Amino acid sequence: MYNHFRSLSIKDELTGLYNHRYFQEKLQELTAKGETLSLLLLDLDHFKIYNDMYGHPQGDKLLQELAKVISGNIPEQGTVYRYGGEEFAVLLPGTDSETALTVAESIRKAVSEHEFEGMKHMPAKRITVSIGVSTFPHMATSKENLLMLADEALYKIKYTSRNKVQLYTSVVDELKSHFDFGSREMELIQMIKTFLTIINSKDRYTYGHTERDMEYAEALARKIGLPEDEIKIIRYGALLHDIGKVEVPTEILNKKTKLTEQEWETMKMHVIWGEEIVKPIKELAPCLPIIRHHHERYDGKGYPDGLQGTAIPLAARILTIVDSFDAMTTNRPYQKTKTIPQAIEEIRRCSGTQFDPHLVEPFIEVIKEIRNAKIQQDVS
């Protein structure tokens, strides 16, 4: 009798997989051992569209079938859990990140190639999943951290593309490998990493926004022929440009209505605060103009210093245009999202006023190239 009720308490009624409660128990148990453990977090792409099109009963059948496909593509030591809604988790004891990526890719491919009912009417003409991967203790230091890193990896895919596998990567750790920091500066870098985590928890948009800004800015810098050392500075400047938002109250960051004049003045201070946070790290001094001036305008009507034209550092002018494009094309509490053609039209309209006119057409070429590459990726 006990085993019967125990089974009921740890199994998901719909899919027959272990449930979220049992997942948390096993995660605690496995991380407590201190041994290598990889976690896959899977999210069913466009599930809302499927539910809206076919109804919830058919959506339930899709989840049941998906659970079987996932279960059929994991190694013997792995266990699948229904994490919640259209999300699933896989725990892989004794599995390093490289092997976990192989397992995740096997699941992604199997789902993508499986014949699900109704898939022909989905955006990619098939059912797909996105998968975030992290590993303990190589990347994560606790069960909570392991979950957070896999979730961040998954979130990055959902914002930039779908039907992909993403291993958690820390750009801050990458930054450490590119510069020769002293012990005091390493402490400050760790503080910046903590600040970025805090900002991510306060304003989830910032994490995905920063990643996209880095991609756009690096691509634009290459498009206009900048040397590698300048591209590197632009990449890390994009990473750090919103670090000052750690000082902005959450209620201002996430306000759904127009900011008051006082709130707007507080928001504008993030560029000053960001500069002050990074300034003590001498190796990152070339990033400071990007942090301070990425809200300047070509016509001199920006902030904080009202710089005009080429008085604005080129790296900051690059970030101004990519930052604005991403803000226009991403859901924000205070504005309606523009389509990519609408955003391109707006960028052209603001050429010479908000944006450097010499960067507008190269950036539009970059956006079209990135967009076409992602379309090809979705088709393949």
Automatic annotation (TrEMBL):
**Gene3D superfamilies in the record, alphabetically?**
3.30.70.270, Hypothetical protein af1432
Instruction: Please report the stretch or stretches of sequence annotated as the HD domain.
Output: 206-328
Q: Give residue ranges for domain GGDEF.
A: 35-170
Q: Which CDD domains match?
A: GGDEF, HDc
Q: Which InterPro entries match?
A: Cyclic_di-GMP/3'3'-cGAMP_PDE, GGDEF_dom, HD/PDEase_dom, HD_domain, HD_GYP_dom, HDIG_dom, Nucleotide_cyclase, Rev_trsase/Diguanyl_cyclase
Q: Where is the HD-GYP domain?
A: 184-379
One Pfam match: GGDEF
Entry protein name: Diguanylate cyclase
Q: Which organism is it from?
A: Effusibacillus lacus
